[in-house]
Amino acid sequence: MAQSGPDFSMAEFLGAISDSVRPSAARPIVVRAAELERLPADQVHNPTTLSIAGRLPTVSFEIFRQTIPPGLSSDMQRHHHETVHYVISGTGHSEVEDETEPWSAGDFVYTPPWTWHRHYNDSADEPVEFLTIENSRLLGLLGVGRRQSAGLATMAEARAKFGEEQS
């Protein structure tokens, strides 16, 4: 089955998704916290720690545990997939395009597709812990996933780096 291009068929793609999860030793129903796979720092592009629950038998979405150290932030980035962060612990705020919103433990933070965004830990002492869920796997299977990072830049710097006017 073609995953993109002229031979791609949405019907074939959807038909290939199993009606039920087929667990195995390689793709278990439960992945323990100690079994999360930490992404190498050179793949993260910011001071946060990202660990993926990659062995779960999900087809269309990815699940991560993200830690933002005290007083730091994620990078200014945008991507085609949607993301929801559940705040496990800590307090902070997020910039999503021209909006800034505070959040704390128990809140959900939504990042729409292709919007510049950055998440900040407002504490000088405690890390922020997120459970991050995104539909990046589905978009990757469809061949339409894209991500850009401007590093630890401001919104204006990100827009300038990628040649955009303020919206």
Q: How would you describe this protein?
A:
With 167 residues, this protein is of the alpha+beta class. The protein has a single domain, classed as Jelly Rolls (Sandwich). It is built from four helices and eleven strands, in the order H-E-H-E-E-E-E-E-E-E-E-E-H-E-H. The protein has helices at 10-16, 41-44, 136-142, 155-161; strands at 37-38, 49-52, 62-68, 77-79, 83-89, 91-96, 99-104, 108-111, 117-121, 128-134, 147-149. The strands form three sheets. Strands 1-2-3-10-5-8 form a six-stranded antiparallel beta sheet, with no helix packed on it. The mean pLDDT is 87.
The CATH topology = Jelly Rolls
Question: Share of helix among residues?
Answer: 10-25%
Could you tell me the mean pLDDT? 87
The CATH C-level class name: Mainly Beta
Give the N-terminus to C-terminus distance in angstroms: 39 Å
Tally of discrete structural domains: 1
State the low-pLDDT regions, or none. Answer: none
CATH superfamily: Jelly Rolls
- What can be said about the biggest beta sheet? 6 strands, antiparallel
* CATH architecture heading: Sandwich
Query: From N to C, what is the helix and strand string?
Result: HEHEEEEEEEEEHEH
